[in-house]
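Batch job 17 of 40 flagged for manual review because the log was empty.
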Amino acid sequence: MSLLQLTIIALVQGLTEWLPISSSGHVLLAANFFTLEGRDELLINAVSNLGTLAAMLIYFRKDVAAATLGGFELLGASFRKAPLSRGANLALCIIVATPIAVIAAIAHEVFVPESIQAQLRSVWTVAGATIGFGLLLWWADVAGGKDRKEADMTLAHAALIGATQAIAALIPGTSRSGITMTAARALGYERTEAARFSMLIGAPILAAAGLYGAIGLLDADSAGALVTLQDGMIVAALAFVSGIASIHALMTLLKRMSFLPFVIYRLLLGIGLILAAPVLGLI
């Protein structure tokens, strides 16, 4: 692939990964535009997650450090009677939020035939999920009281929020960050708290996806595939830069306004895809 094509895909991935608008859907459309399809598109999408993951780890480095130290605290928790620290609670919430989504992602890769995977990654699926889950985000954002913070997080809430990542793993256009923020808002958490927790629990999933993509591209190097590991590393590096900007913009906006601008964008994008698909040959 050309450097320009890689740059566009990387910027799209980095800018959309943490916004509730579906990075996989946007990268899928960008890849289709460059006639990058099937396994090549899947792998370049996956490895780009390494860049956006690094962006999140650096932006929320204090939370990441607290959760990491808290993880070590959990190892000796059974020998202590003192209450868990904030970092240990956060680490425990991240741990319980992960398994269902990982199992779903593995099951999707192992048991779902490639023909069905291709259908799930069609423009119609992306458009439908973009609209449907956008409306769900709007409902969750405006319904009920929304003043809970991380300190109020229960393991049941963490598990439920994390479990919704499985939907995003199966249906492109859902938005992993969007569906988890939707769940957190529906459970009563503040917008910035919902966004921050959504990003933190995404770390294990993105790490697994990124490593899967890197390994797949490493094998592709010897098979003469359209994209290589070098291409993937370029995409990951550029996605890191745009990812930092995306996170900062999101956290700043959510302190001042609702999720409505993202909902409107999703509706317009979904409708636009449906109308443009026949013209652009995306069907």
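Reviewer: the log was empty due to a logging misconfiguration, but the result itself is present. The chain has 14 helices and no strands. Unflagging and moving on to job 18.
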